[in-house]
Amino acid sequence: MDFGTLNVLSLALGLASWALPIIAIFYLKKKNYKRVRNLSILSVSLTVVSMYFQFLYINHLVKIGDWIAIEDTNGGVVFCCTALIFVTFSLNFINLLIMKFNKNK
Fold it and tell me: Which residue has better confidence, 30 or 44?
């Protein structure tokens, strides 16, 4: 297995986890709240899988003893994981708030 693809897959899944809440906005307009909820769950799940791929890659670097690569990339990985979590949860939270207020009308 080429462990470099884990980074590419992690990036793709992270971007998908941001795209799903944006897609859910169109379902909010149609009042399809079940679809919005399902997209939110899928978005958070993709975030978890994306971070898991990063953990697998770091584990690979530990196994081969590439400590320099870990030291060089650790700050960027922490920043990206933090941004991924914050943006994903913020987008989904905003959608769920809009959904809740639309249901009450």
Answer: 44
